[in-house]
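Lab meeting, item 3. Inverse folding demo.
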């Protein structure tokens, strides 16, 4: 890799684009528009999958391209290309100008700049480990997991890394640049006892280098946790069903908050009136003590960004404060149309996609109650620690989530682990049923991926221990 890839001038030293002529094309294309930008992206990525004792997959990819967007009212024009040339950019400019149709607008003020840096510029794909070393590490993970217990019959480990250079150019010479690393390690194990097989999973990652992720104590802790889950599930009994009090554990269970509530607080759904939270600003939507934020400014976190994919610096946005709805997550277009401020939540999967309001790291703040006391206050219920897949209807907040690790609560104490429990409810309604908020806020380990409108982006979730009264549990006890 040449030194120029490490600098902010990559797009004008390693491609056919010229900085001044590119700026002129952007200025002309967006003249008379209310907003828009040129989004330039260079990305390196790699992934390795080790399964059944051998390397199953190894992929390395380099991509680069641009997306040019114009915005006028509620209409946007978008053109993208993997061809970083002036010819391709001029063709894109002709396309995005087509939305003008004789109308014109005043260009919005560009985002404020920031000198804040939330993660390293170093490329994790180049630092520390070569191809053979990464494969040997996955082999070591496989051997370590199998040595834990003779009941372990299958081990799968995957390692992935990404490094992006982003530059956003607006009319008038406003530019921002960012270098974004992202790494992740996943481990899953399957244990067999007689005719029964159960699995466990753990992953970790963030915006930092492989060296931090792959320290021996870190990857062993992931294997140990995956094994623990599989071992617990081997002892699980059929889950009870019915309406009962549910205690949600800290950390990853915040994915329920993300899906059932977070999407409903994104600006586009509320501007269009399709969210269950539309028109409720300033009103009580949750129990006292419930405060939810979206924070893209956390150092090294998977969902964090120095600035979003429109160039707006990310922020810590209070969505719900002590049960009162305070705000929405906004990109520039929806914020302007709703006469609000952009919050740094305009995100896109790549240069081939338009930005839209998306979450970054969304979590509930800690309360003041001891987690053990929260569990002790439940006579008969469910303690849900880990979740798998789920489905949510944004328009009404109804959700169904499957628990991958959960326990009975009997007379205030944890009982047997259960298998096959699902949580069924309504996001806005669940917020009003929260009766206890623990003092043990945790964020997830760095594995979140959020899908919306056909686009996927990395995100973070989190919460403290929560007690929710009268939640419907679907079970397998018969």
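The presenter then showed the designed sequence:
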């Amino acid at each position: 890799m040449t030194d120029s890839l490490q600098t902010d001038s990559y797009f004008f030293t390693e491609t056919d684009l010229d900085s001044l002529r590119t700026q002129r094309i952007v200025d002309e294309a967006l003249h008379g528009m209310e907003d828009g930008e040129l989004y330039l992206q260079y990305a390196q990525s790699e992934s390795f999958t080790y399964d059944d004792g051998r390397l199953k997959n190894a992929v390395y990819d380099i991509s680069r391209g641009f997306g040019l967007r114009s915005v006028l009212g509620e209409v946007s024009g978008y053109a993208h290309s993997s061809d970083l040339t002036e010819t391709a950019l001029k063709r894109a400019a002709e396309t995005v100008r087509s939305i003008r149709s004789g109308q014109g607008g005043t260009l919005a003020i560009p985002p404020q700049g920031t000198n804040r840096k939330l993660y390293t510029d170093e490329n994790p794909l180049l630092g520390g480990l070569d191809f053979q070393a990464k494969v040997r590490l996955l082999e070591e993970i496989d051997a370590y997991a199998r040595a834990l217990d003779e009941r372990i019959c299958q081990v799968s480990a995957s390692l992935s890394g990404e490094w992006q250079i982003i530059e956003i150019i607006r009319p008038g010479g406003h530019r921002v640049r960012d270098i974004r690393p992202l790494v992740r390690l996943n481990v899953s194990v399957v244990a067999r006892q007689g005719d029964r097989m159960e699995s466990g999973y753990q992953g970790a990652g963030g915006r930092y280098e492989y060296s931090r992720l792959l320290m021996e104590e870190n990857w062993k802790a992931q294997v140990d946790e995956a094994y623990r889950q599989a071992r617990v599930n081997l002892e699980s009994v059929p889950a009870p069903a019915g309406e009962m009090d549910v205690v949600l554990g800290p950390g990853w269970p915040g994915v329920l908050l993300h899906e059932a509530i977070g999407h409903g607080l994104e600006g586009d759904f509320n501007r269009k009136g399709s969210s269950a939270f539309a028109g409720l600003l300033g009103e009580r939507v949750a129990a006292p003590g419930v405060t939810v934020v979206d924070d893209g400014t956390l150092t090294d976190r998977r969902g964090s960004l120095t600035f979003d994919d429109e160039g707006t610096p990310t922020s810590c946005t209070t969505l719900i404060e002590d049960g009162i709805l305070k705000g929405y997550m906004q990109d520039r277009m929806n914020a302007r149309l709703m006469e609000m401020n952009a919050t740094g939540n305009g995100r896109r999967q790549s240069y081939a996609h338009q930005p839209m309001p998306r979450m970054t790291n969304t979590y509930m703040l800690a309360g003041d109650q001891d987690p053990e006391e929260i569990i002790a206050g439940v006579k008969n219920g469910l303690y849900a620690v880990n979740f798998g897949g789920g489905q949510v209807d944004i328009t009404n907040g109804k959700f169904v989530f499957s628990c991958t690790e959960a326990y009975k609560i009997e007379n205030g104490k944890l009982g047997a682990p259960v298998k096959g429990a699902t949580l069924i409810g309504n996001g806005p309604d669940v917020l009003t049923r929260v009766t206890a908020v623990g003092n043990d806020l945790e964020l997830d380990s760095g594995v979140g991926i959020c899908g919306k409108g056909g686009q996927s982006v990395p995100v973070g979730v989190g919460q403290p221990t929560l007690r929710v009264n009268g939640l419907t549990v679907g079970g397998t006890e018969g």
